[in-house]
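Hello,

Following up on my earlier ticket. Below are the two sequence lines again, exactly as submitted.
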Amino acid sequence: MVIAIDDASEIPIYRQIRDQIVLGIADGRLAAGEQLPTVRGLAEEIGINSMTVNKAYQLLKQEGYIVTERRNGAKVREACSGVKRLSAETERVLARIISEARVAGMTEEAFFEVCRKYF
Amino acid sequence: MQEVFLGKGVYVMLQMMFFLTMYPVVFILYFVMRSAGYGKEGMYFGVHMKAEWTKDAGVKEIAAAYDRQMKKIMVVFALVPLITFFIPYFSITFSIWTMWLLVVISGLMVPYARGNNRIRARKREMNWGKVGEGLSYTEIKSAGKVRCVKPGPFLLPIVLGGAAAAAGTYHFARSGQPEIGILVLSFSVLTAIIFWCAVWMDRQKVEVISSGSEVNLNYARAKKNLWKNMWLILAWLNTIFMVFLMAAFEINQMSVVMWGCIVYTLVTLALMYYVWNRVLKVENHYGRQRDLPVEDDDDNWIWGMFYYNKSDRHVMVSRRVGIGTTMNLATPFGMGFTVFGLACIAAMPLMCVWLVMEEFTPLQLAVTDDVLTATHIRVEYEIPVSDISEIALIDEKPKWSKVNGTGMDNLCKGTFHIRNEGRCEAFLNPQNAIFLQIETEEGTYYMSAADDEETRRIYDLIAVGSQ
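Thanks for your patience. The regenerated structure is below:
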């Protein structure tokens, strides 16, 4: 799976990593139980500090997308598809996006059409 | 027994060695830089370009000017070293070749750097913006795990070479030629450095060209495998050459040593050419499967050649000119390596000046206040006349080999070794007809002044004084 990092973006790099791993889990590029690279390995590959990757992994773990084991490193959680709810942080982001859509004059139907496309 | 200082035959051999090993550099570099200019798909002088931009008249003019400049420079550089065949002095020949090499390497890069600046200016002028989306891609499957270099295969040449070098160093030290031992040992260290280079190159990130992980991983493995094989062959080649050198020095045949150096250099160049071709084939093959935009990081490349990116912690990155890897000069290691490289380059002209001074400064012998002083650039020896137990005029200098110091056509200076007799100190011009043989408690000295008349005068002065 390929992740794209934008150095010029206002979104912090750890957040970009987290978002793309979640996207990978959602669209099946990362299967349940699949091993993720080690913090050091991924940091070396991207060319960033390992603390940044560690922060992304911690966030993913808190949100229940991955599990970390001392011996085997991090892997995609087997039951992460069964959480059936958004995290508080994601709900906040969603609320902002909906507000922006309303201010932009989008109808509810048009907004759900966009949501369906990505769901 | 052949002597280790430069005779006429050895000098001609050295000229041939310089010619065969250094002269091809101008043509190799010309073709490398020529193909780097605008031969790479989507890249003009290290600047990312869309196909439609390359049809612009301004861009075409820049490419044509580059071709003209490169041809002119190549012709001039190809002619210059030929003058060395008419120069009978080793130091001048050596200096011309050394300086020529430095000027060729930097000179052939100038048109490329100018092309890079002009293309970037043209992009700004035409408001073309960037190629791609300003994103850098990373393959997270097998991140940090695509490695081809294993220590095992390298262990054998390192251990064998190390053991042979240790035995050789001991042997040559015992036979009074420690400098040959040090030379052999340095080749053994070089094998270890080759392994280290292989490891560093192997740690390069996986280049992402496709959204399909298998394509990226196979591409990375194919390239890394080629590099690993090249380094492994180089490690063996180096070890074999080291053993060959020891044998050649043992039979004391300088011509064999020099032919060995020529063959070693040519085989290394041929190997690199082969690997270069194979890497280009791999790049072309996988390039056709590219479905992701290129990473436009032109701003991180100084003159399109030197990578400087503070926010990238990679020490090694893929080169833009030629093939292989280059260093990120913004990392502490890259900076240190650059400073070391620049210091080495700065030291080369100094070494040439020193060599010319060695060859052209006349030897001076003088007896002042009952002390025999030998001066050449600086005071080399001071021997109180009272310490001299015996002095003789000889018309043939001994057959010897150099332990340390200088051995040239017109200068033997330093410690030399005479088989079955041991070490002695030399300070003489081998082209003179007579020499002083001086015995002291500290050892034997062979000396001469600038000319025979002066040598005889010094002999008279000391011989009469001691009577």
